[in-house]
Write a sequence for this structure.
């Protein structure tokens, strides 16, 4: 499914994007998925609209589109619970059986017209509404950690990586100064540079990044994160061939997803990871050890992709605090702020008309 032809203004040449990928692109664009607002910054309090302004300054203005992860497509399917999640959470979605799902795949780029051949993270957002009417919304990312751990650092990161209007690139001195002061961001960059990039939306994994709490019927609460792990066989993109991929098809990830769905549904296992004593629940830059207990609670089945302009995902936010009874927020301060920024973005694009 190929998006409409972009407006006359051409995108920045790919080689420029590639050179900045591990700085302005990855640490900047992935940050857009987790923009924050709250009273942490003093003396002034930032609103969701304030942070939306920062995103527009970083990405440019694209009326009708989301302020982050602008390039996306709606999807429809269902979740088949195997019942194992009931030991962890009383949420109705974990009862054995089927729950309808809709959602959105997206590319973490700053423009809806950007090419797919870039080393950017991908995202998967979902809405699961159970038979009792309870709704669980997820906003997951293909990278299991975040480049910064607090609001002040996020704001500083956006300022450091905002492209200069003359050169079209972030100022090297600002980026270098930020990285020198933030070892967690340097570690994130190293992780991004070393990990293979999935060749498809369908063979990639997606992660909650933030921690949450699952509450069982007996009241016992456990701190968790979760991941969607694909059943499709993994193959990696060749980073050295991004130029050739973009020349052949600028929208190859989205067209590949449509082609795979024409052949049949695509599936992911929903795997819940349980925290152990000492695991941080309030810092998304820190991964938990691979040895932590994991529980496979069911299978996500995606059956259809639709253009976002006409699909069910267009006019909602995938607010991570839309949670059913049995799932609650953790002490991660980013969660409430994400909710506020997503709401501000929805208000803006709702008044701008449908994206082209």
């Amino acid at each position: 499914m190929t998006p409409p032809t972009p407006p006359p203004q051409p995108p920045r040449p790919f080689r420029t994007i590639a050179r900045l990928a591990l700085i302005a692109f990855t640490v900047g664009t992935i940050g857009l998925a987790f923009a924050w607002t709250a009273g942490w910054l003093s003396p002034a309090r930032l609103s969701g609209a304030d942070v939306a302004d920062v995103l527009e300054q970083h990405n440019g203005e694209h009326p009708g589109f989301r302020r982050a992860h602008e390039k996306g497509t709606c999807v429809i399917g269902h979740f088949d619970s195997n019942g194992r999640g009931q030991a962890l959470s009383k949420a109705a979605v974990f009862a054995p059986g089927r729950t309808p799902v809709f959602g959105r795949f997206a590319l973490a780029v700053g423009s809806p017209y950007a090419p797919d051949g870039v080393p950017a993270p991908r995202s998967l957002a979902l809405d699961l509404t159970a038979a009792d009417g309870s709704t669980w919304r997820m906003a997951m990312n293909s990278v299991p950690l975040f480049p910064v751990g607090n609001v002040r650092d996020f704001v500083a990161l956006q300022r450091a990586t905002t492209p200069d209007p003359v050169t079209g690139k972030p100022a090297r001195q600002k980026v270098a100064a930020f990285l020198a002061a933030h070892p967690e961001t340097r570690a994130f960059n190293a992780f991004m540079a070393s990990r293979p990039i999935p060749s498809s939306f369908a063979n990639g994994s997606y992660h909650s990044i933030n921690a949450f709490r699952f509450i069982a019927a007996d009241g016992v609460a456990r701190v968790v994160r979760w991941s969607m792990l694909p059943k499709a066989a993994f193959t990696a993109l060749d980073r050295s061939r991004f130029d050739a991929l973009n020349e052949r098809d600028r929208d190859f990830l989205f067209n590949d997803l449509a082609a795979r769905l024409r052949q049949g549904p695509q599936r992911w296992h929903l795997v819940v990871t349980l925290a152990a004593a000492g695991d941080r629940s309030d810092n998304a830059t820190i991964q938990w050890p691979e040895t932590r207990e994991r529980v496979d609670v069911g299978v996500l089945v995606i059956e259809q992709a639709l253009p976002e302009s006409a699909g069910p995902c267009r006019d909602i936010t995938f607010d991570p605090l839309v949670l059913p009874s049995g799932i609650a927020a953790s002490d991660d301060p980013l969660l409430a702020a994400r909710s506020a920024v997503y709401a501000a973005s929805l208000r803006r694009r709702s008044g701008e008309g449908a994206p082209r």
